[in-house]
Amino acid sequence: MSAAAAATATRRLRAALLAWYRRHRRDLPWRRTRDPWAIWISEAMLQQTRVETVIPYWQRFLARFPDPAALADAELDEVLRLWSGLGYYSRARNLKAAAEAVVARHGGRVPDDPAALRELPGVGRYTAGAIASIAFDRPEPVLDSNALRGLPRLYGTRQEADAPTVRERPWAAAAGPADGPAPGDLNQALMELGATLCTPRAPRCELCPWAAACNARAAGDAAALPRRAPRRAPRAVFTVAALVLRGGRALAVRRPARGLLGGLWELPGGEVASARAAGPAALARVLRARTGLAVRAIAPAGALEHGFTHRTLHLRLFRCEAEPGRVRRDGWDRHAWMSPEALRSLPMGTLGRRALARVLAAGDGADPPPRPAGAAAPARRARERR
User: Fold this and answer.
1) pLDDT class for 285, splitting at 50, 70, 90?
2) pTM
3) Is residue 297 scored above 90 in pLDDT?
């Protein structure tokens, strides 16, 4: 195809997609604003998360942090508490770090230059392109998982999408349509197409504005594209954790800011070798090693299973009472003693909240088991240790 013919085809595809989008787009709250900060928050939240889940989180987060300065000044615990349940918590940590950088480098204003955006913590090609195109009309391509499904189907790319020779093709294909009027609408249209019509299974090709030009539809293999390498089975991980009680208070621990579930609070515990090893004796050993505390009166409180991207976590839960002694943290950066119900106010991940609900229900709000006759009363600890 000649350059002129390719340009004409791109203009036609662009016009058809924009016309379809303006008739059929969903009325989403972040589409009613050109505020780059509000758009940025929505794009961060929408990564790996469904629209209907994001809407109330976006509204609450933006109400509390209406601009970068508000987020930059906030405590990380508060940020993670508002994010709690949304998952992929590195997004929240990166947003806070980026807000601090915007305040320090750009006077609190979100920059309109894609290169400057990409220099901010956690901002890659996708997020920078979304902010620049939607908020500032910059001709930057934007590809999310939905768009990365539609373009290979349109052009009939049948190699594995993750192959090095293939990975950049969709971005190159999207750059042409983005270079024209209303690049923000064009990018949102491409993502909307994948979210509503060009779906992973049973794509609704008969309604697609690109149906006549789609290679995959003509070949009858749209649902099979894009091709991806088989995923490895998730690794099984076995863990134990407990509601550790002393003097009517429960122990909570916080994970370091970096890493899986960074900055979130949880019940103390740790990994064991196997499901058979996940018993009371293992819990006592883990707690002694990771908190320095000896525990007694260990009672089972149920079990949970939780899937992460590359692992399936099998968690056995317990309730127990801690002997007197100072907490010595191994693998956490902070701990607190508080009433069991007060633990609910801490920023926790989905698994942490499920585990907390399970151990509280197991005890039904009861006091910890009584101490043996003649045992010393537990020393009251300060509420928090940093």
Assistant:
1) very high
2) 0.85
3) yes
Total Cβ atoms within 10 A of residue 283: 26
Cis peptide before 226 (omega within 30 of 0): yes
pLDDT recorded at residue 223: 94
Q: Is the pLDDT of residue 47 over 60?
A: yes
- Cross-strand bridge partners of residue 271: 239
pLDDT value, residue 379: 34
Rounded Cα distance between 292 and 305, Å, is: 27
Question: For residue 41, is it within any domain?
Answer: yes
> Does residue 375 form part of some domain?
yes
Residue 43 known to be catalytic: yes
The predicted-structure confidence for 180-195, as pLDDT tens digits, reads as follows 999 999 999 999 999 9
- Tokens 């909570």 found at: 252
Residues 282 and 198 in one domain: no
Into how many domains does the chain fold? 2
Helix (H/G/I), strand (E/B), else coil: 144? coil
Listed residues 196, 224, 252: the one ending a domain:
224
CB atoms within 10 A of CB 307: 10
Sign of CA dihedral 117, 121, 126, 131: negative
Range of the domain at 33: 3-224
Nearest to 257, CA basis, from 61, 92, 70: 92
Among 43, 192, 266, 321, the active-site one is: 43
Dump strand ranges (E) for the chain: 235-246, 249-254, 265-266, 269-272, 295-307, 311-322, 334-338, 384-385
Q: For residue 21, what is the domain's CATH number?
A: 1.10.340.30
107 and 167 both lie in a single domain: yes
More confident call, 1 vs 312: 312
